[in-house]
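Blackboard transcription, Thursday session:
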Amino acid sequence: MLEFSFWDILSNLLLAARWTVLLSVIAFVAGGLAGLLVLMARVAPVPPLQRLAKLYIELFQGTPLLMQLFIVFFALPLVGIETSPWTAAALALTLFTSAYLAEIWRGCVEAVPKGQWEASASLAMGFSEQMRWVVLPQALRIAVPPTVGFSVQVVKGTAVTSIIGFVEITKAGTMITNATFQPFLVYGLVGLLYFALCYPLSLSAKALERKLNVAR
Amino acid sequence: MAYRFDFTSLWDYAPVLVHGVATTVGLTVAGTVLGVGIGIAGAAARNSASRPLRLAVGAYVELIRNTPFLVQLFFIFFGLPSLGIRMPEWAAAVLAMVVNLGAYSTEIIRAGIDATPKGQVEAGASLGMTGPQIFRYIILGPAMGKIWPALSSQIVIVMLGSSVCSQIAAEELSFAANFIQSRNFRPFEVYFAATALYLALAVLTRWILARLGDRLFLKGAARA
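(Written on the board underneath:)
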């Protein structure tokens, strides 16, 4: 029978970690861009648009990521799009991320004092000018720590994509466990790898928060 | 050929869905009660005089908050039996939820405790109250009231997160959905229905927790 050394297990998990990282980056970047659009709709002075964005956010925050993944995975073929675990995972995580980031950023935009809106309006700025030149630059400062903090949720969210067969750290762990029968060791290592990815992000979110509070 | 949606075949499986919803609710209630209990104990421990205890609780909180729930669940259900600790699926699911919510609520409740004005603690001490008495009668109530909305959101997140417990065959709602779609071959309709049920559960949970919060803490807040 084939023997697996500790190094075999670890190296295979590390190889799979590439896909966790790549999927996290794609979801975070694409989700950030989409989140910006949702944010605009959420705070624009157009009530129907606001309601639509609110519904979008509620839907994603009120349902499990696993169900979102399944729906994307099984819905795309219905509209004729050939889907793979890769595309389904990337799309579902992007949508999930956009909803959460839009809600986080809405809080930051609302934290900008009302006088700033009024002052810029009195300078005859339109909504997009107000956002671009007055509100967003100020909201951005407050938004950095919680945004970095949320990236931890994105990395952890990628673990759920193992269930639709995307091979990242968790799926690799399951496959290695099935071959080695050492679940304690393998899942322990899997947990530590996630910790190694997430803890620096958590720490930097905390450090940024402290730095910004001191500056104010 | 265009796909024809057919939700009618779901009716035959309604009892399966009901069983799934009931299990999800059961897991959530057990996980919440025990998890928040651990959170209160953890928050108290983080404020204790003992440095090793503070460090141990801090390590627990960071370890759990920086690893995925699914991996925690797998570690408990597949990993712990190597140490001779075996449990049924539902118990592993509850334990994972308790451990997970315990860590988050420790952090949330600690924030509430930190917001307690120092003068109140000193006032309690000057009345001859002991440390545990001060914690129980002065600090805890207002602290829980302050962080109740944050704690409620976390409870909803844990309820939604319990969907991955289907992966260890705990028979909750997403397990029911997997089961049905393997029988009627209509995955989209099944998962759509399950998602709608989760959404309803999330709205209901938020509503119940808000009412409960009013009941438990509004009186105290009005007095303060």
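Lecturer's comment: The two ends of chain A are 64 Å apart (CA to CA).
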